[in-house]
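Pipeline run #58 for the internal structure catalog. This entry was flagged by the ingest filter as a single-chain record with no existing model, so it goes straight to prediction. Upstream metadata was stripped on purpose; only the residue string is passed forward. Reviewer on rotation: M.T. Logging verbosity set to normal.
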Amino acid sequence: MSTEGLIEPTGDPSLLRRFLAAVTACRSRLLSTGVDPSRFDLAAMAADVEDLRRELGVSSWNLASHGSLSRLALEVMRENPGHVRAAYLDSPQFPQLDEPGEMVLGTGLVLSELVDACRGDRSCRETYPRLEEQLSAAIEQLSAHPIVAHTPLGGVVVDGGSFLRALQVILAEDPGTDVPAYIVDAAHHHVGVDVTTVLATHGSLCAGYRFGCTSDFSIGVYLSVLCRDEAPFVDSSTLQGSATPLPGLAERYGTSPYLAACSAWKMPSASATIHDPVRSAVPVLMVSGQFDPFSPPRLTREFGDPLENSFVIEIPAESHTPVQGGGCAIRIRDSWIQNPSLPPIGTGCLEGLKLEFVTP
């Protein structure tokens, strides 16, 4: 369904109805074959990990996760900390905050970070002296007067919400050297092929709501975890009180279709303890890219604080899962894992890294 709803505006009710009907049919089909979606939650996955450790005869091991899989790694640490030697979490998420909420909050935080980075770069500052003001203007302009663009996949509506989500995808996949230009263009009611291609490629059921809906993305497992372990504990005040450069960001961004789908997936709520911070003495290295809207460094520091032996590394000028990108981040990780009780060494390779903006 990745190309569904390209021509509908943000929050279009007809698209949501079609999506909920598909989710309902999927659930019914699974139940008819004896598959219970409620058995695929974080607690069950953590138990599977422990079963695997026992079968392998491993007394203790290192855990590694990328992106949302950190929720599982943290649950393993909560339930079986004695068998975890160390863990490194690349672009981590935490049980205290649901993923859809973090998408919105992270987008605002990283756009604010981008504005500050542009202000601190002479060329960017001189080329885009009113970037924060133009960001707000772009969202308001497109919300009032959406643009219908044509792509090889069909028409795409670019309104305030879809433009925000396109920027989020661009920032997640690339640190965003061209984003100031996209913002200024949109403030003048123009969107280029890069923005429309992102929306067309990802589709309105994915762009900005998930890091990617690739062929290996299991929507059923995702909904089971979201609707059982996260959605029952959503705190809307977290978003309303967030410090972002855009008033009303959550409203413009649009409600996650996956969060809305919980009404059709019909999962019983997990115990409230699944939402509690994980408190553990296991050594943990958490790595976040400076411009990662899915796991911004500020949230990594805030929500990772209860991990008493944790270390946070922010990778300048990088975005989502910087360890997977190799280079400096992976050298720091590889060195730390040899002696995880000590702070990471070799971080000097981070010095001097900065985002190089593209300016005319």
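catalog note: Residues 39-96+276-350 form a domain with the Rossmann fold fold (CATH 3.40.50.1820).
catalog note: The longest strand covers residues 84-90.
status: ready for reviewer M.T.
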